[in-house]
Amino acid sequence: MQEPYVLQVKDLHVSFKGQSGMVRAVRGVDINLPKGKTIAIVGESGSGKSVTVKAIMGILARNAVIDQGEIWYEGKDLVKATEEDFYQIRGKKIGLIFQDPLSSLNPLMKIGKQISEVFTVNYSMSKEEAKEKSLELMRAVGIPKAEERYNQYPFQFSGGMRQRIVIAIALANNPDILICDEPTTALDVTVQAKILDLIKQIKEERGISVIFITHDLGVVANMADEVYVMYAGKVVERGTCEEIFLDPRHPYTWALLSSMPDLESKDRLLSIPGTPPNMVSPPKGDAFAARNRYAMQIDLEEEPPMFQVSDTHYAATWLLHPKAPACEMPKFLQDKIRRMREEAQRYAR
């Protein structure tokens, strides 16, 4: 692996052994995480986002099989790493924030002890030193009255405050990479915004790299440098945040953007018709074809390659083939993108 990437995933394939056969959850994923940047991986439930992250962390279920691929970090392929190797990486160099903070914390242990254990176990600090470090972290993530709350239990904290504690624990080892797996899904909109701002602030202050997993494109609009759109175990479009939001090319990305709430629009909120394909027997051609009103005959027969739109923008859709008929995104989405452009210009001024 070469700089400037701190992590690279190459042609990753992950399957699960099920009663009906092998479930092809991840099918040839490539991801590059630049140092000090944030990438977002977005897509519906079952698209392979979390499985990709679990493969990186070495926490796949027992019935999972990495069929092929490489995951490069610090010159080592994590696909070949042992559990002993992961003990030195997981939590220490790559931190992970899960969706539900309550399930990530021990309900019978005081918050302060859960944070300070990182310092006493990993750094052999005294209890006094560990407590001081823990209080510093609690203040850094915005926990008020840290000294008092140090001795409280998880049930005494709100959902947003529990998530801040989980972030504090993830940061205790000063990791190179912070993976956030749907960290705001269980929170209300106001608290969501505060947690997103906190993650963004931490990234900028500490210079860490962030992988943000979400099903909601709107969540990452103002924090991701690059976006990977996943569908049926594959990356179907990737580009800078601006390219994905203002110049999307894949019909699935169009559908995701169209389903985002828009307070300025009087049109009905759109949904994506149909359901994701059965990954025991993935479709022969484009996996999104059955739900795509722009699908052509070739979509049912042959899987599209990644077409290059710009130096940083790629999309796997036959609509980008030179011989494909001209096709425009829905007017509803064109209007939404126009409003987003106008808003971005106002913000820039």
What does this structure look like?
There is one protein chain. With 349 residues, this protein is an alpha/beta fold. It has two domains: 5-228, 3-Layer(aba) Sandwich (Rossmann fold), CATH 3.40.50; 248-348, no CATH class. Helices cover 34% and strands 22% of the residues. The chain has twelve helices and twelve strands. It has an eight-stranded mixed sheet with strand order 6-7-8-3-9-10-12-11, with helices on both faces. Strands 2-1-4-5 form a four-stranded antiparallel sheet, with helices on one face. α5 packs across α7 (159-171). The longest helix has 18 residues, at 189-206. 38% of the residues are buried. The model has no long low-confidence stretch (mean pLDDT 92).
**pLDDT averaged residue by residue:** 92
Number of strands: 12
Class of the largest domain, according to the CATH hierarchy? Alpha Beta
Strand content: 15-25%
Low-pLDDT stretches are: none
Order of secondary-structure elements: EEEHEEHEHHHHHEHEEEHHHEEH
